[in-house]
Structure formats: structure tokens, C-alpha cells
Write a structure and sequence with these properties.
The chain contains 16 helices and eight strands. It is of the alpha/beta class and 416 residues long.
Length: 416
Amino acid sequence: MSRFFGLDSHKAAVFATVLTPELGTIDQYEFPLDDQALRAFEEQLREDDHIAIEATTNTAFLYRRFRPRVAEVVVANPKKVGLIRDSRAKTDKNDSWILAVLLWLGLLPNIWVPDDETQEDREILGHRAGLVKEGTRIRNRIRALLTRNGLTCPSSDVASQDAHRFFDKITERLSWAGGVELASLLEQLDSVEKGIRKLDVVIERRAGRWEDLSLLLTIPGMGTMLAFTVLAIIGTITRFPTPASLANYGGTLPSNRASAGHTKHGPTGKAGSKMLRWAISEAVRSLVRQPGSFQKRYRRLRRRHGEGVAVVACGHKLLEVIWHMLTEGERFNEGTEAFRARKERRRAAKVQAAEKVSPPRPLEVIVQHLGRLQAMAGRRPSSAMIPPQLRTMPQFPVAPKAKLPPRASPPIVTTA
């Protein structure tokens, strides 16, 4: 007897709808998002259950926790589900109900869920992107501080040695508060830069597990960081049936409106991966400096439409080329053998240098919390089937004699 769960997850609570078509019953309740309540929820799960969760911040955590216990866990695309449900009656109760019903009917628009290793690669890249963003914010605050005092840093990078020598000279020209603020900002920037360098070592090591890394490194302008980002975000190229689907996921495919014989092309969509779009844009800006078809295409489009359109169009073309490279196992055909050999030597030197650096392992933190970890390991799981904080909702029985349509196969969705 299969059951279909629709879980509307939040930071502190989860609202659940349990649909049992064979009995014609619907149960709805809410439980807190803590370990005790989750254990109680897991104890009443069965192997033939099906769970639908809308993609949100803690979806990956819930997916990894529930997946081994049930038949399937489907992650719903929130934008497409939002088009189906009635936004004028958006409540936790209705959202979880819609998820359960669409999962039962096989109409739930789901997204691809990466494996654990790929998910960890994405988390590392997201953390590094956050540090880079934080470093940019601190740099802007330093420049704003100098502007308020009528000063301009001669170096383009405020973290360089030339910039630090300049700061030593102007210390007397700043007020006491300005000097304290500058010293604090420089200390924060130095800490962020150290964190980025440590993550670069980790990424240099983890990038070697991707078999197709050597293929993407044959693209001029694409180093280990960009190739690692592209592979981690794509995951497996088989989930993109055509080159256009990968370009659409990268946010480089223009919109198309065709009706009554009239076709109108509009701006590109932003529904794809922001990180993949960034990596492709960075690769394009370096690739167009090398002689070849991309440089010609870029210069022609820049003269006619401007810098932004030229970069996006070349990014679209590059994503299509990457699709063929990963699908057919071919290298980029515009690079010379000398260039590829030089790039491989630099890559080997970076890997060798990364192996000499010990990976960051917070052993001190583990030792400090060893007693607490041992106490947690000795706890017995809760024997309660339903957590005490559960707020029971009224049941909505379905007529047992009603004929329910057969469950259809889930739709194939290629975008994440």
C-alpha cells in the first residue's frame, strides 16, 4: 500500500500531507525540524512510500536523510509548481497537498539531484564564491574610506604590496577613527584572501576526480577553476539531450515568441545556473583574445550589438561546443599542441604543489567536542511514532468508492 508524502519544508518546521489512494484518506500534520522529530517521522516511513519535497535551502539535507528509507524522493521545481497551484491561496497546508497530489498523479515537475560527491563540489564552489563576494565588499569599503578622506589608491588591488606601502604612508593623514577602520578592514581582507587560497588548494585536488577535466582544459582561457565549476554544475551531460538544452541551463538562450506567423526574439532567461553562467562568461573573455572563430564572432557582434550581447552569444556557442566535447569525448579543435602541452605542465605543477599542502582538517574542534560527540552517540533513538510537538490537523477523507486515475510516469525535466 503506497503512500505519497508532500513535505513543505521551512527553517524550523515541516508541514506534511500523507495521501493514501487505496484507502482514500488524507492526513495532514506539522512537526518541528529537529533531530527528535525527524527520527520519529522516519520511523513511520515504509519502503514503498514516495516523498515530494520542494527545492529550498535544506532540501539536500532532507533528501539524503529520507532517500535510503523510501522508494523515491522527488525534488520539485518550485517555479513550475508555482504555476500550477493557486497563488491566491498559498499556505503550507495547500502547498504540501499540491505536492502530494502531483506526485501521486505523476505530474510533479522535478529537478535532477546530484550525487553526494557532486553536491560537495557545488558546496565548495558556493563557499568560495561567497568569500570572493565578501572580499569585493571589503575592497569597496576601503576605497570608500579613502574617497571620504580625499585619497586614491594608486594600485588597482587594495590587497597588493604596493597598496599596503601606500597605506603606511597615508596613516598620518587619516583621523584616529579612520586609521582604526582601515586597519580592521585590511585584517578582514587578509583573512578572506587566506581562506580563498586554502579553498583553491582543495579544489585543485578535487578537480582530478573528473575524467573530463582534461577535455575542458584544452579550451584556451579555461583553467582548473572554471573547468571544475562547469563539470560540477553540469553533473552528468546525459541529462541534457541537446546542445540547446545546456545553453538554456546556462542562461544564454534567447527567449522566442512565435504566434500567427510572427516570431520575436527577446532577452536571455535567468532561470538557469548563475554559477555556470559566470564560468562561461569568464572563459569567453579569455577565449576571444586568442585567434580563431570565437574571436571573429565576438568582434563582429561587438561592433553591431555591444559588449554584453557579444559575450552572451559567444557563451551560447561555447556551451554548445562543450556539450559536443563531453558527449563525444573530443578535445577543443582550435588550440595548438604546444599550448596544450604547456597547459598540462602548469596543471601538473599546481597538482604537485597542492599535494604538499596538508588539507584543512579542524582536528582541534573535534577534540574539544569529543565528549559531547560521545554523549550524543550513546543516546537511544526516540520510540515515539509521532513527536510530542506535533500539531494534528483535521483529516479530509476521500470517498473510498471514487475511481482514481492510474499513476503516470514522471515527466522528464532536464533543467535543475
